[in-house]
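Q: Here's a chain of 315 amino acids. Please give me its 3D structure as C-alpha cells.
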Amino acid sequence: MIGTATFASGFVLNDFAISLQSVEASTQQIVAVVNEDAISQSDFDKRLKLIIASSELPDNKEIRQRVTPQIIGSLIDEQLMIQEARNMNIEVADEEITQGFATIAQQNKMSPDQFEKMLRQGGIDVGTLRRQIHAQIAWSKVVQKRLRPRVVVSDQDIDSALERMRSKIGTKEFLAAEIYLPFDDAKSEAQTKNLANRLSREIKSGKTNFFKVAQQFSKGAGATKGGDTGWLNEEQINPDILSALKNIRTQQISNPVKLEDGYYIMFLRETRDLTEDKLPSRQQIEYNIGNERLERLQRRHLIDLKASSFIDIRV
C-alpha cells in the first residue's frame, strides 16, 4: 500500500527564551503578493520568530538575513498550497488544525495548553504556527485527491527493485539524514548556498541541532522526521552525495553538497554491508517506491503552480 502524505509539524521545541528584537514595521506593509493574496511584514516577522526559536539558531542579524529568503519562500509555498486547496473546494476544519497543534505539543511532551503557554511566554504568535498547520493539512489533501491516484506500483516494479537489491548484496549501505535546500534560479542558488553554509557551520559548532534544523528548513520527504532518509545503498546514491558520506565518520555532518536541484547537508548515522537478511519485504519496497513517486509528483506540482502564478516579492 502506498503511504499517504504525512502531516509535517516541523517543530520540536525545548523551553526557550526569545531575544529576537522586534522589527518596527507596519502590519500593512507587503513583502510578497501571491496571485490575489498578500503576505504582510507582520506575517514574515511572526514566522521569523518561530523559525529562530524552533530551530535553536542564534538570534543575530546575520542569521536573520540568511534565513529571510527561505522564510519568504516557505510563506509563498504555503499560500499556493492553500489557494490550490481552495480551488479544489478542499476545506480544512478548525478541529483538524487543533489536532495538528496537539500532535506537535505531544512531540514536545506537553499538553496543548502547556505548549501554547510556552509559545506565548516566548513571544511567539500561536496563529503563525496554526497557519502553517493549515497549509500543510490542505496540501496533504490536495496530494491525496489529485496526485496519489496517479501513483501505481506494479508487481513488476517490486520484482525489478528486489532483483536490483539482491544484485547489490555485499555492497555498502548508509543510514543517513539530510537537509535539502532547493533553488529555482541563479539568484536563489546564491542565497541557498549562503544559507546552507551558515546552517552547516552552526550545526558543526554545536550551536544548534541537525534534526531541529532539518525539521524547519529541509524540503525533503523526511523533513518531519529530522531529515531521515532510511538506508541508502551506495550504488543508488548520487556520486557527489556518496563522496560526502564516505568522507565523514558516523555522527558527523558533511559540508553542503550542490546538485542540480539544490544543496544537501548530510548526517551519517551508521553504515553496514548489505546482506540477504537485510533486504526489505515486498510490502516495504512497494511503500518506498510509491512514496518516492508521490514525492516527485508533489514537488513537480508545486513548481508548476509557481510557474503559472503571479508572484511579486517586494523585499
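Q: Can you summarize the key feature?
A: Residues 170-278 form a domain with the Chitinase A; domain 3 fold (CATH 3.10.50.40).
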